[in-house]
Backbone:
């Protein structure tokens, strides 16, 4: 009976950590498309590997993470904490990055989005992943701490969820590359997530269920469009 009671929170946490990690996978997949084909797999492994190490590292700093909720200063009626600053910075970075990518893709044409080893170095793109890894990892760890008390459950859930993301990263990346409309949709997802991070940093809670439902519905509409437009073109 004890094993079952421990297995349920473990499986639940694995599912939640995987769902939270989808944002990370999408961001890494979009950046990987800027690199030559032979570097993309290595970039995805490095990006998700660093995400796992950051999550495991933050777990060892639980006391520090809990102190991040302490108010540092107040702007008007809004208390700003260390966690709030990290969420604000990460959200603004994600909004800027996704908006810039949408502009480059829609206004500057294919040449601006072609793999370019001079403009898009492996190191520079990996640095961008590290910035977002910190924000996503913080959100992931706070979720884990709020759900379970056993450290081994948290460690196991993080390792398993990152393993699942490693398996899913290449198919997601290939799918986004093969279907340009889904790249714009993925960037819009990141824009929404960036806005939700900023809102959370300002203590405006947007239920994540609403966000994921909107993303799932938009994805379904794009899938239906992808299936019907080619048929319409043949008629």
Residues:
């Amino acid at each position: 009976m004890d094993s079952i009671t421990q297995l349920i929170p473990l499986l639940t946490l694995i599912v939640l950590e995987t769902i939270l990690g989808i944002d990370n996978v999408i961001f890494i997949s979009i950046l990987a498309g800027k690199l030559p084909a032979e570097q993309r797999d290595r970039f995805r492994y490095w990006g998700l590997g660093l995400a796992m190490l950051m999550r495991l590292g933050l777990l060892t700093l639980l006391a520090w993470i809990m102190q991040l909720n302490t108010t540092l200063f107040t702007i008007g009626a809004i208390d700003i904490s260390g966690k709030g600053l990290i969420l604000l910075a990460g959200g603004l970075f994600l909004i800027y990055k996704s908006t810039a990518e949408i502009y480059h893709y829609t206004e500057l044409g294919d040449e601006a989005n072609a793999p370019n080893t001079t403009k898009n170095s492996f190191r520079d793109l990996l640095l961008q992943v590290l910035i977002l890894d910190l924000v996503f990892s913080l959100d992931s760890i706070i979720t884990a701490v709020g759900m379970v008390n056993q450290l081994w459950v948290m460690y196991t859930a993080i390792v398993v969820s990152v393993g699942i993301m490693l398996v899913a990263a290449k198919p997601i990346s290939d799918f986004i590359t093969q279907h340009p409309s889904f790249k714009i949709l993925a960037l819009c997802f990141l824009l929404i997530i960036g806005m939700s991070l900023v809102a959370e940093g300002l203590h405006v809670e947007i239920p994540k269920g609403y966000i994921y439902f909107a993303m799932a519905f938009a994805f379904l509409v794009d899938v239906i469009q992808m299936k019907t437009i080619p048929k319409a073109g043949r008629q």
